[in-house]
User: Fold these one by one.
Assistant:
Number 1:
Amino acid sequence: MRKILITGGAGFIGSHVVRKFVNKYPDYAIVNLDKLTYAGNLANLTDIEDKPNYTFIKADITDAIEINELFKRENFDAVIHLAAESHVDRSITDPSAFVMTNVIGTVNLLNAAREYWKGKYDEKRFYHVSTDEVYGALGESGMFTETTAYDPHSPYSASKASSDHFVRAYHDTYGLDIVISNCSNNYGSHHFPEKLIPLAINNIKNNKPVPVYGKGENVRDWLWVEDHARAIDVIFHQAKSGQTYNIGGHNEWKNIDLIHLLCSIMDKKLGRDPGESAKLITFVVDRAGHDLRYAIDSAKLQNELDWVPSLQFEEGLEKTVAWYLDNEEWLTNVTTGNYQAYYDKQYKGR
Ligand code: NAD
Ligand code: DAU
């Protein structure tokens, strides 16, 4: 049996990765470690929480003592590290939280792996889930490849770039088996409604203004979250040690065009007249240091490991809207803060 520590498994992408691994690999013991910050929601995992190969541990990766004790006790075979502060706007308000979790937290995990995996590095694996934002911003043309120089602009992307560098340094210096993937913007179910797509869905549903930063000209490359989880599965199992893979959807959208598409889907789903939801679009002051454009070249992943995105964007967006409208309770619990009581109700005393 392989025992895999997945960090940040109560978050958006982490919950999809945990679900995939728990369901696909009944012989693996999947340990989900999460601090349950505002972004962690155990209600994301109700469908798998009672599976025999799944365990949840509430812990903070910035606590080196707790992380060391855990590694000493558990004999993990691998780590898939997703725990992070993930929202760019919050990093502009409070960069320190991003340094603590994304840099110090990652180094704490690396130190524990270095210490407790000694003599067995070739049997173990440390997988860091990272972002395309480490590469900075593109102009009108070009794409990020795995050899694009790092040039982060926001405190969030600077912290993720730093953690990527530490992960590589532990490979080069100590010989840890590591892999890193850098992915573009994800969308799908269980996405916290501070990020553009779920925020817009929630606001349109409630007839509230949809804030578009600046002129809405910024471009993001959107990937369905389940395609990201599938890429992580493939890379985790097949990549050679020390490798990096870019993951992306070849699916670039200007924010304003995306919001118009979303409004037209919402009009149909909510039985509104065409154009009604678009009246909610409100241009607001731009994000500081707002990266103009991201676009991922994922040819290496496609050619070497045979991964391609499975879902067209319009279809994925319709599925996503349908999920939010069908899961009103999830959304209400998140927006009211009730979701934070789920741990006490379901897990305390287990
Ligand atoms: P998220 O904010 O939804 O989830 C992050 C999770 O980490 C939460 O469950 C939170 O409770 C947990 N966490 C935060 N601080 C912690 C700490 N100190 N100790 C333990 N757990 C902690 O984030 P997400 O969007 O699911 O992103 C997951 C990972 O993927 C991040 O590393 C992010 O940088 C990366 N990523 C995200 C995207 C995207 O589009 N969302 C794209 C590429 C890469
Ligand atoms: O590229 C990968 C990154 O994508 C991940 O590493 C991050 O964790 C993730 O949060 C995401 O970052 P972005 O900043 O691109 O995502 P966000 O949803 O915050 O914003 C998407 C775009 O929409 C961006 O250009 C800013 C803009 N925006 C965002 C919000 C929240 C708006 O115009 N209005 C908004 O209200």
Note: Residues 145 and 297 are 5 Å apart (CA to CA).
Number 2:
Amino acid sequence: MTFVSIQEALAKGKGRVALRGWVYRERGSNEFKFIVLRDSSNIIQCVFKQEKFSSKAWDELDKVTVESSMTVEGTLKEDKRAPTGYELQADKFTVLQRAEPFPITKDQSPEFLLDVRHLSIRSRRLTAVMKIRHTVMKAFRDYFMQEKFIEMEPPIFTPNACEGGSTLFEVKYYKEKMYLTQSWQLYAEAAIFALERIFCISPCFRAEKSKTSRHLSEFWMAEMEAAWIGLPELLKYAEGCVSHIVQMAVKENTAELEILGRDIATLKKVKAPFPRKTYAEVLKILKEKEQVDIPFGKDLRTIEEDLIMKHFDKPLMVTNYPKAIMAFYKKRDPKHPETALCFDVLAPEGYGEIIGGSERDTDLEELKKALQQEGEKLENYNWYFDLRRYGNVPHAGFGLGVERVVSWLCGLDNIKDAIPFPRTMYRFSP
Ligand code: 4AD
Ligand code: MG
């Protein structure tokens, strides 16, 4: 017989099927053995009746342990008491490998589960998260391809910083010093002169020294960059892309969101347009509604982001942060020169910043001044300055933190569960 997935078997609902997978749960008596089988698609209860098997086969079945790999053949029967509504009445099986006692049992600490991530990745919870992550990647691509953007791949080894020297990972590169990329942006800015509208999904690296539930040392950023656009168009792309991602996940991952116990109705409401506030307006709301007084010029911290998001149930787009505290490439707003033409998107429900982006400064002298203020060596940026020398045009772009979005969609407590094998300051194995 050809094998079908458990989900295909459940959809079929009757007749004979052959399945293959891993033992999720097992229990037995003298007369019956119950094995809940798991594959990538779902779980199903398989019932083995002793009288159908030789004593040798029964003995083998009796010894089957959690996470053993096996094939099972039998007849499907509807059974409301079974975990997924059907039962497989088995009459044939093979055990490919009888697993050693599985180290993961109930109620283990999150740290232990991370120590054995190569095994805990099989959990139904993480399987569900990874399927949702797949949708996030797909939806981002899908959105920008529909908008006629071209996918482009950035280098990972870079000679200079994009987001400030304090989080750079230095690596030995033959006899030279290089860094792991913090963002593809500077290369995107070079490539728009060829392709005009581009996007990428790439790993990024930051030596984050703070221990938070929102920061990884290795994470994936989905970025876009386009020529001839400014902040208004950029905001449209950001809200369009985030709504598309959320709605696609709601549509394609209902089962996974249910496994994670996520409130789907809340996510369904996440559709463009999103509310917009300037940084100054956010300070005003914080002062009036939360009695928190932040002086103009201070960045919003996690705690302030969470306080402001108490007042919004859709993502909030915050624009015009103070120019002085922004990365060197963010363009000054000519109408409000103390601020930059930049924005962050803050997710609701306490998930913080999911997107950062801006119009890019096209003024070479301003760029040099800002870099010097950040303590950077101008000669490292000579190639980047060329972009302002040869056919300079207005352009803008943003980066979306894939794991931040996955955390929010899945309702995770910690960003470490939004990536298959997390890397943080204290966690780099397995
Ligand atoms: O706001 P950031 O630093 O922006 C940039 O890097 C720009 N160069 C992007 C661009 O304009 N093309 O980072 C963008 C997003 C953040 O909003 C956040 O969601 C995510 O990347 N991010 C992280 N996610 C997980 N762990 C970290 N350490 C992160 N740092 C940033
Ligand atoms: Mg940012």
Note: The chain has a mean pLDDT of 97.
Number 3:
Amino acid sequence: MNLKKLQEIAEEKKLPQYRAKQIIRAVYHEGVGSFLEMTTLPKDLREALEKEVQIFSFAVEKIIAAKNRQTIKAILKLSTGEISETVFIQTKPGMWSACISSQAGCAMNCAFCATGQNGFKRNLTAEEISDQVLFWKRYKTQQNITGTFSNVVYMGMGEPFANWKNVKESLRILLDPALLAFGARGISISTSGMPEGIVNLAKEFPQINLALSLHFATDEKRTKYMPVNKYANLAALRGALKTYFSLIKRKVFIEYLMLDGVNDTKEDAQDLAEYITSVGNAYLLYVNLIPYNTTASSFTASFTDTMRAFRNSLFRRGISVTVRKSMGADIDGACGQLAGSSV
Ligand code: SAH
Ligand code: SF4
């Protein structure tokens, strides 16, 4: 919701504080779809709000559910015409998580990612980011979806730390008990590897989870497929992680996409284990092996047996590792498939 506009109207009309709170509660907690429904408000105020304050900063173009109904994708049309996407995922029975975008498109240009391949459009505002969570909260109620919704992951389109100012403001809206009222421990941010973002997160939001999309454990390979590595290489990321752990002792997830013949050999597992050990505090680093989801690029996913061998190889070296399940691939709603195309 456009909170700034609401504040302006509240000031202009000299509304008592309880009024503004009542309006905020109705939108964020009671699922009011239009201010006109709020018959407890004076008529002129209702009409002014309806005219000037938008509950959603985007239009929902389309909602697509996977066959198993465990992944639901919404295509959003921003007020300036660009397209962004958000996904609602049942991660465990009765547990729902929103995967939200921080940008329309992405400038990082990772070779394996559909978002990156389609280029950067613009940063999302704090409101456009937090409204994705508001949208799923209401959708869940309207569709009578049972279970809890207490997780939000910044793993949709875009690099969150390249839009830190707005992401930070969106986090405040998510965490504010009067607004979306999420717990910090249920929120995770995934980065392609921007060192100052990693350190800022530890300093400013120490309870929010961090995921680092490492994917390659040598600079040669990482630079080849992730141009961001030219700006901050593995040594720079090691430095950022060391600082992170000097500030907080919190588990960090290392995302590792498994690409057939590219980064899935025994040597790759060894390189990864050595890199993780070199960071120090290796017990706080958890490797997630991610199956590659098909995009227009020429990569193919590693075989299940190869992934298992890779997992075992890390495990034997004392590293915490799990093979992640991919969800939503049949609706192009899985990681790396958010292309921003209107379907
Ligand atoms: N830009 C941030 C967050 C969004 S991407 C980042 O890169 O971390 C969310 C995750 O999906 C990242 O770990 C990303 O590397 C991964 N991903 C990208 N393309 C993928 C693909 N084709 N299959 C599976 N995961 C992919
Ligand atoms: Fe951007 Fe993340 Fe995709 Fe890389 S993987 S292009 S950083 S969204």
Note: Residues 58-331 form a domain with the TIM Barrel fold (CATH 3.20.20.70).
Number 4:
Amino acid sequence: MEHNPANSNFIRNIIKEDLESGKRNHVITRFPPEPNGYLHIGHAKSIVINFDLADEFNGKTNLRFDDTNPVKEDAEFVQSIKEDVKWLGYDWDGLFFASDYFEEMYNRAVLLIKKGKAYVEDLSADEIRAYRGTLKEPGKDSPYRDRSVEENLDLFQRMREGEFGNGEKVLRAKIDMKSPNINLRDPVIYRISHASHHNTGDKWCIYPMYAFAHPIEDALEDVTHSICTVEFEDQRPLYNWVVAETEMESVPQQIEFGRLNITNAVMSKRKLRKFVEEGIVDGWDDPRMPTISGLRRKGYTPGAIRTFVRETGVSKGSGFVDSQMLDHFVREDLKLQTPRTMGILRPLKVVITNYPEGQVESLEAEINPENPEMGTRQIPFSREIYIEQEDFMEDPPKKYFRLFPGNEVRLKHAYFIKCENVIKDEEGNVVEIHCTYDPETKSGSGFTGRKVKGTIHWVEATQAVPAEFRLYEPLMLDEEPEAEVKADVADVEVKEDEIVEVEKNFLDRVNPNSLQALQGFVEPNMKDVKAQDKFQFFRHGYFNVDPKHSSADNIVFNLIVSLKSSFKL
Ligand code: ATP
Ligand code: MG
């Protein structure tokens, strides 16, 4: 796989030193998604970092589903995540589920209790919050903190057996209520949740919290470098505490990097789910979604996504990256591999009055002038063609070089035509243009008699294939939608009303014009296109055949990217 050592990546340096100093003799990384939604481009960053680093140091990368929260998780998401990782071009070594370790985790929690390092708490979530203190004030010990080991063992077992309702009790690590690091103020490590789990069914009604489960998962898999995003930085001391106190044999090292944020996109699965549930988009794979499946359906390529992610580098900071940078790499990737063709998005009929009625000729055109190996195609030409409405103006401004009464333009791959007459309906709308053509000016004939300033594209009308073109704009109006509220890593559940508050205002900023569908025509040689086929439509941009809505009767093309970019690398 392609590596660009020039890109800064401080994690690579840490791994290199670990191997050189003998601290490690092998490298294992992991990509640990929670199966509570579809992967997005931010996850692609984590995937590329983890797999590339292991690859570079002859190590291994596991795909591990961090499925410790039964209410939000689903087998559908497990399936889609596997597909997306593969599509991005990666193959995991081990495939694991955190839920397969529940028994092991339970035993480690029992070990903590026996060591006097964990206790069963009866306070409610709100009380726990109140007792925890703030950044300025130390926390207070819970009245249940000094329960005996025996009582704790008994209560924890009864929690497992289902004796208590949700929220009635939790298990907390006994660390330090006065620690300056709030994460160490006796974090909750187990909670009760009477809910069916996608993998373990109804076997469990207590589930480990992320902060407890994750280090154990890493250690059990002998992960050497546990790479995560910066919001976990303050949790690192807790991570290390769990590994040490549960007496794990293998000691992983947590390393944090800055999240990837992209302009005009929200990237939390919770918010993306909201788009799906509210019907704002057509599923998780809607081409406007920053999900991997959305980008795939829009027509982005895995190679372009990998290059983009690598070029953004690996650092501690998480600023916004301009979405145009991703588009730039998509164009670069598509330029040489996609066939070029002509399509009319907003048709206007042109009749070439001096072209013999009933005659159709076949013109030859290169499929991709930048890649001659792709060969040529045949395009029919006859008396009736379609052009773009915007390529004709009855009353043009200065410097308009396309069609207007009396003006001559070049039809790409065909002839010069001259506008002679404009046909209108009763309301004065232009319905048809009458032109004449000059047979001497055939493309490729070497005609040098005179020059024209405009070249426009067209499609022969009698054989044209109807097609729908879907044009997209970003879903979010804000260039930098407010960064993710990382509440779900806290040791107690986020309050529903907090979430609702966040979601209410981000939905207000959805772009109402993010999708525009146009009914036009494409060349007849396009009639057998298949899902995910990609083309460059002359003067318009790159398009992908929509895998969900395209059919033989109605071909649907999604705009991938336009041709022009103001982006400078
Ligand atoms: P979300 O809030 O979107 O659900 P998450 O962090 O909760 O994101 P996980 O399924 O837990 O999602 O993430 C799996 C891995 O992907 C984690 O290691 C996480 O840090 C990483 N990741 C998630 N979002 C980003 C991002 N925007 N940039 C880089 N890495 C990310
Ligand atoms: Mg999450």
Note: The chain is about 25% helix and 25% strand.
